[in-house]
Amino acid sequence: MKRIELTPKEMEDFLERVRSKKLHDTDYEIILGMGETLAFLSQALTNKNISIKRLRKILFGATTEKTDTVLGNKNKGSKESFSRLKEESEKKKKGHGRNGAAVYKGAKKEIINHETLKHGDSCPGCLKGKVYEIKKPGTIVRITGNPPLTATVYELQKLRCNLCGEVFTATPPKDIGEEKYDAASGAMIGLLKYGSGLPFNRLDTMQNCLGIPLPSSTQWDIIKAVADKIKPIYNRLLVEGAQGDLFYNDDTTMKILSLMKGTNESERTGIFTSGIISSLDERKIALFFTGRKHAGENMSDVMKKRNEELSVPIQMCDALSRNMPKDFMVILANCIAHARRKFVDVTDNFPEECMYVLNVFKEIYKHDAYCKKSNMTPEERLIYHQKNSKSIMEDFKDWLQEQFDEKKVEPNSGLGDAISYMQNHWEALTLFLREPGAPLDNNICERALKKAILHRKNALFYKTETGAYVGDMFMSIIYTCNLNDVNPFDYLVQLQNHSEDVKKNPEKWLPWNYKKNLSDDAHISSADQK
Questions:
Q1: 221-240: string of b/e by CB count within 10 Å (b at 16+)?
Q2: Burial (Cβ within 10 Å: 0-12, 13-18, ≥19) of residue 350
Q3: For 404-463, how does the pLDDT look when each residue is reduced to its tens digit (9 = 90+)?
Q4: Cα dist. 290→203, 270, 275, 317 in Å?
């Protein structure tokens, strides 16, 4: 766009010629420049509104990005166009919002036998039949409150001889242990800090209010001691995670105070926490890394531990180049949710176009939900998507190109940017149509990174690289437990109680097999007693 500068006097003369309809030949160039400037300002305002909308989501959060919520009343007529999946999708029945007894997996169970009857007794009601035990018992759930960490003070009675002066002290109970802080204390502090984002100083304040002091410095000493015992498991998870056939990765910003001091201009100034989720069959492993490396560089470090005989894995991430490992080959899949979000951001300015796009994604996700509900194998899922989703995506691809070819959309607009993103990364965004097991999005990794984001929002930073490493270790183990439906508190306790065996045989103490190892140890102990 050519720059045209006019003085106030020249502008006044130009406007006067316009009013009198006596334009000079040079005036047409000024009019053209004014039109281009108006178009530029209009586009800038549109982009500003989009940026403000995105900022509003960052500050206050988006309640949901579901298609019906984003489009509102504009989407009422679109349901007829997507009726093919109506028979496959079932409406969820509304519940009463209460949790049944089966949900309380970590609760203690106490069996209460009938006070007068037992299996095989005569029925006291009809006096003819016999009672038998019903497999499903009646249940009552009672929840009690306790401080995060409790304490017991043992007062040992002392007796002194009035003649010789010798003091006799009561013997403490055998089961109280020798350490002031037991394994459960370290597990609870680690779970609160790195699993729930509760900073040391807040737990310090809470414990003081409850009359059981636990200074922040003491909490760190406990955590550091636990970290030494669980480090073999973290190292083993790195090896196990490297063998996955599907990887998800992404990163988020973080602060480490010791790295922020005295940074050279030649060094990378950014500090990040990378999240990597490794999936192999039904087993998933979460790995966290905090430092100056990007997600792709951390993934390269993990891949160095991979068995070279294994096939090339699938990697799911967004389209940023820093997420890619440079020295290892992967089959790249890009996140559809990232592409979809670009259209969500411009919905207010391009409602009709975005309604079509969002409903395309909606139908693809419905197909994928049906595959999950039907427990399809990766190969069956691929066939289903090729049969039901491929034609939708091909029509969508044609529609994207049509917007530019027929000049329906300005390439520099917000919608044009979203369309260009889809076109530039089409192959990676549609890998689920060609590779068995290729996911649609990177949401599982983004959920994992919320652990690090929660820590950043509450604790604000790590003080040292050692603190960051300990945080990564705890987050990796806790979230791996979450992904595999394992109680992280019990797991951390058992790792400490069996720290010597964990150090020697970490592969036997992973979240998915440690209970079997515990039962084997209990069986051997009972056999020795006999």
A1: ebbeebbebbbbbbebbbeb
A2: buried
A3: 999 998 888 889 999 999 999 999 999 999 999 999 999 999 999 999 999 999 999 999
A4: 24, 11, 9, 18
Say what the alpha-carbon torsion angle 96, 100, 106, 108 is, to the nearest 10 degrees. Answer: 130
Buried b (16+ CB within 10 A) or exposed e, 112-127: eeeeeeeeeeeeeeee
Which residue in this structure is represented by tokens 């411009």? 346
What are phi and psi for residue 348, nearest 5 degrees? -65, -30
| pLDDT tens, residue by residue, 80-139 | 444 444 554 445 555 555 777 778 777 888 888 888 888 888 998 888 899 888 888 888
Give the integer Cα–Cα distance in Å for 524 and 530. Answer: 10
Whether the model pTM is above 0.85 = no
Identify whether the C-beta of residue 449 lies closer than 8 Å to the C-beta of residue 395.
no
List, edge to edge, every strand of the sheet that includes 331-334.
Answer: 283-291, 272-280, 246-253, 314-317, 331-334
Q: At what angle do helices 351-373 and 414-424 cross, to 10 degrees?
A: 40
Q: Which two tokens stand for residue 196?
A: 């729930």
HEC readout, 181-215: CCHHHHHHHHHHHHHCCCCHHHHHHHHHHCCCCCC
Which distant-in-sequence residues (6+ apart) come within 8 Å of 500 by Cβ? none
The DSSP-derived string for 370-431 is HHHHTT--HHHHHHHHHHHTHHHHHHHHHHHHHHHHTT-S-TTSHHHHHHHHHHHTHHHHTG
DSSP β-bridge partners for residue 202 = none
Structure tokens at 471: 């945080």
- Cα 37 from Cα 45, distance rounded (Å): 12
Note whether 286 and 472 are within 8 A (CB): no
Please report the beta strands in 111-260, taking only residues with DSSP state E, as ranges in sequence order. Answer: 158-160, 167-169, 246-253
What one-character-per-residue DSSP string does 456-494 give?
A: HHHH--BSSHHHHHHHHHHHHHHHHHHHTT--HHHHHHH
Give the span between the Cα atoms of 329 and 308, in whole angstroms: 11
Tokens of 205: 């304040």
Alpha-carbon span 70 to 68, nearest angstrom: 6
